[in-house]
Amino acid sequence: MTDPADEHVDWDLARRIAVRVAGTEPLYQSYLAEPLRKDFARFVPVAAELVAIETGLETPGEAHAEVIDRAGWIDANIAAFRRLLQPLLGAPADTAQADTEEPAEPSRVTRTVGAVELGSVLGWMARRVLGQYDLLWASDDAGDSRGDTVGDTVYFVGPNILVTEKRFAFVPSQFRLWLALHELTHRSQFTGVPWLRPHFLQLVNGLVDEAQPDPERLRDGLRTLMTQRRSNSGPSKSSGSNSGQPGQDLLGEGGLAAVFATEHQRGLIAQVGGMMSLVEGHGDVTMARAARGHIPDADRFAVVMQHRRRNVRGMARLIQRLLGIEAKLAQYQAGEDFIARIEAERGPRAVDRIWERVEHLPSMAEIRDPQAWLERVPAA
Length: 380
What we know:
The chain has 17 helices and three strands. By secondary structure, the chain is mainly alpha-helical.
């Protein structure tokens, strides 16, 4: 059986490029690595309990910490990309109908270009990611590679954590528990709300299914980019319109993905954006509250990390904008503001109303205009 994803992207080349771009970190190759693993093994259960108390969400199974290096993070994400792209790139050879004409094989140049693009992006990101909740990495709905329940594992990128602690003179024990709170909050959301993970995967799969190359759409996207560049238009002040008109900064709304998307795809991107804005905003609020009385430096961590994310310059800022990271950071702040607004109106834990059913999820427009959500969704 041939994996169709292998025919379109040279994954081995993508991995080699990503690992080269990511580089290695001497700190992680020292005696500091083992204490890091022991700390997260100790802190993850503590964080899980603190988050459960704060959110009231019941999560199945026990959470496990896995500290990995940059190459391990790259490997896991490449595996996730291959699974996501398989439906788009065609069924395996043994399921193809015999009476259909064989499609033309992708050129060597196409496979190489795809590998270079993916490898460069993954390598760049592998130097910056501190932790990642195992949502897309799980291989199926039965369990992960070790036989654990899906959603049991949270990952921490050891080299980057050690570098961050050294650079900002963070107290390691406090910073590691603080990171664990962040990842365990996401685990509580996606395992404690039964419909949330399936809904998210449905949206992602919908985007993948519609990601068919269209030369005309590519040309339209390029024209939009050039028009916006000439007009020097800033981020749209509209409430989430997806019209794609020249006045709307699609690049600022969602990166290149939004620029080259169809109207329907932009609608899906907006749904994903609204959901992730809520999840991240709720995550930041929960992490801050769960840290009280346990992590004295939590406020400093939040300020420093926010400054680190937002104050990038030069090529790094351009990459963030092209990948849509800049737009996501703005959406996450909007999500935190949304939580504050609905709690001011309906009291603490107002977000629990959202977890009741998928129809209560706010759209991206409602994230930016909480009053619209308050009027649409009645109080419990």
